[in-house]
Predict the structure of Rop-like family nitrogen fixation protein.
Amino acid sequence: MSDLEELQKKVRKLQSRAGNAKMELHDLAEDLPVNWTEIKAVAEKTFGVFAELEAAKREFGALENSR
């Protein structure tokens, strides 16, 4: 498998993780004030996944444009 295909696969997996993290944060927000103490941990997890996704997308774009 080429580097481009590997990176594309990584982006797809991260998109799935990001979607799940977004829904977890959304569900937590809907249930407030229940479990309000989890806001920071869930938000940090969501932030981390989206930051990783953004970096992978930039890397994929750069690699794709270099071809």
In short: Helices lie at 3-30, 39-65. The chain has a mean pLDDT of 96. The first helix runs from residue 3 to 30. The CA atoms of residues 10 and 56 lie 7 Å apart.
